[in-house]
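For reproducibility, we list the full input for the adenosine-5'-triphosphate complex.
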Amino acid sequence: MLYADVIIPLGVESFFTYSVPEEYEHSVTVGTLVVVSFVKNKRYTGVVYALHTNPPVGFETKPIERVIEEGFALSASHLKFLLWLSEYYMTPPGEVTRAALPVSMRLESYTSLSLVNGWEEKLADESELSREEREIMGVFRERGEMCMAEVEKLLKRKDVYVAVRALLEKEIIGIKESVDDLFKPKVERWVRWKRKFSSEELDGILDGLKRAKAQYKMLCDWVYYSDEHHVECLPRTEFVQKIGNSVAALKGLCERGVLEVIVREVSRLEVSEEEVGEVHALSEAQEKVLGDILGCYWEKDCVLLQGVTSSGKTEIYIHLIQETLRQGKQVLYLLPEIALTVQIVKRLRRVFGDQVGVYHSGMADSARAEMWRKQNGTNPYPVVLGVRSSVFLPYQRLGLVIVDEEHESSYKQKEPAPRYNGRDAAIMLGKMSGAKILLGSATPSFESYQNALSGKYGFVQLTTRYGEVMMPELLFVDMKEYRRKKMMKGCFTPVLYEEMKRVLENGMQVILFQNRRGYSTYLQCDRCGSILKCKHCDVSMTYYRYRNTLNCHYCGSLRAVPAVCQDCGQGHYVNRTPGTERIEEDVKQYFPEARVARMDLDVISNKAKFRALIDDFESGNLDVLIGTQMVSKGLDFERVKLVGVMDADSLVGFPDFRAEERAYDMLMQVSGRSGRKGERGKVVIQVVDRQNRVYQLVGKEDYHGFYTLLSREREMFNYPPFSRLIQIELRHVDEVVLRNAANELARQMRERLERRVCGPAEPDVSRVRKMYRIQILIKAEQGLSLSKLKIFLKQKCDELAKTPVGKGVRVYFDVDPL
Ligand SMILES: Nc1ncnc2c1ncn2[C@@H]1O[C@H](COP(=O)(O)OP(=O)(O)OP(=O)(O)O)[C@@H](O)[C@H]1O
Ligand SMILES: [Zn+2]
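The corresponding predicted structure, in tokenized form, follows.
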């Protein structure tokens, strides 16, 4: 008898053993998707992890119920990669496959659910249900029968499983046994000639139709139309509009063998609309860099390319892609955000046309499943451009992995598990596939830069902009001064105002940047601008308005807001940062002629709107673009001559040991949007804390110096890249229970790990959806075995869960948190 160990796509540990019925013995291999029942006959689509002949002891195995068609199976190497993610990020394998597989490949989502007869009696009081459960009940009452995927769609949430399962357990909703098919190809019906008819034949047919008026008319119209437009077939919807909508007539003509209706499978994937052209020839400097990269690949798998903004890194990628395709291999090109794919996909398609496939989580699930199948089939896209989740796609012969803007923290998935970093996962994927890896950035992450300096990665630099364009001029402007003199025009200093005026009068464009993160979480002196930091941790403290206290994220220390500034002894601590709406109003007031648009979250979540906005700005239909992080990086606009950073202090004030690194990156990136072609551009950076060293360092434009200075402190405080971090987050509805559990866990861990344990401390947002959260941070110095550490941490958490203090407390791991 053959047995299969199966990964169930749930947050359950390890594997479950099923027997393989004889009929499937030949179709099941490692990586096959199979339908199995698990816990009370609920069905899930699992992934076969291993096959063997050892009957499990102690329980009777259930058989595999069904094997999913081949197009979706995971290759052994793909599975190996997913298991690596599971281990490295301390996430059960089922949760990784859950994240990796499109919903429609996981059968249980299509299991139909409905309210159980007599549910009212089972549910005495609605307040027994959680809010989520009540919401789900609500949609069922409205809609009757539904599947999990629909519930998720209606509630616009991805994590209804827990609540749905709770409702199942309470037997308020039940499972309908019929299960829909997995992946339904999208089809269209077309009408066409059954075969080719000569004119004589047609005359004959028409003669025979004299008494069937409707058919006669339909056929005449169709003959006429297909002649006129030289078409042999039409989608049925169009046929109905243009030729006639008599169902009976169409049916009649089909029965006579004149016409036929066929079903065609159509693709949900985007097709390229770009005209394919030539690859740009590289400049001399770019040519040299390309040679150096290829040279490094003789010895190293991974190369870091540090190139200033607008140096033409993308052009170099394009040449490397071309080379890789020539060798018959595939390319994965990662970008940190969907928003950035819009411009890059255009550039790639201009060269590679339909060879480029785009993948991101904003795609309809069915399109994702189609992409998955295509990549598994005989004609996969040679180039995949996508965000972090594209590392989950199957690859058959990966030759090159490009991680653009590798320093971006949005590569990290924060919620839900697996909390992986797309860059690091891509590096691993590349290594496991024997591919070469290229990390690109103007401001590399300290982690990658250190790997480059130590020789672990190859290192190549491009220090000039393409076309000898000068780097923009940076102007730091002291807002405090102008505020005091009451010379601000709304949120513009006179300097920014004058520069904007000049640029707009010349018919050029302006980008205004406002930081989204961190506002109102830090306090700043209204006189000297200094930001309050924790004495022990070198990070700014978080301000909690409701308690009027300051709190350190790292060590958990608390303090009251000092009455006067600790630095100048005179000013008072305040917090203020205007939002993008406010900036828009000010632009309208002070530059009434300017055409202005805001690029913020609701624009970005709508792809069409976003594309339209980019096009408008590109084609000069807009003069001023206001935005947050989205406008700061990767975008390539020719006519932008001025970038205004509205309030740079909100970047450095973020309570994180990486705040300064991020602020530096952000300022360099956003400056990089100015003056990319032709005349030199300018950047006006409005600040309060003029003396802040980040500004001094940005002004010098010396990344290496910046790294050297900051990395010394990182080393001293034992932060990455000189250590690895693992964050343990505990959650519970009761604050006291939670705190006790966290204290106990930290105490136990300290017994062995000593000073490597920091906290417990409250996170930025300490209560989410009724659950309180608290975090413990583990710092592991270089040389400490990470895998042993992880085993130890897990073990301690498991032990805690079994004791009264830890009962019901949920534990989440975050490896390499950002
Ligand atoms: N060899 C080349 N031939 C023609 N145009 C080029 C060449 N290299 C770069 N350019 C143009 O210069 C501009 C900047 O190049 P690109 O966007 O590739 O820079 P980048 O280094 O990726 O910048 P960023 O880091 O800001 O994203 C683009 O408009 C690009 O088309
Ligand atoms: Zn602290």
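Residues 280, 282-283, 286, 307, 309-315, 442, 466, 634, 636, 672, 676 surround adenosine-5'-triphosphate (ligand 1) (CB under 6 Å). The CA atoms of residues 800 and 806 lie 5 Å apart. Both points were considered when choosing residues for closer inspection.
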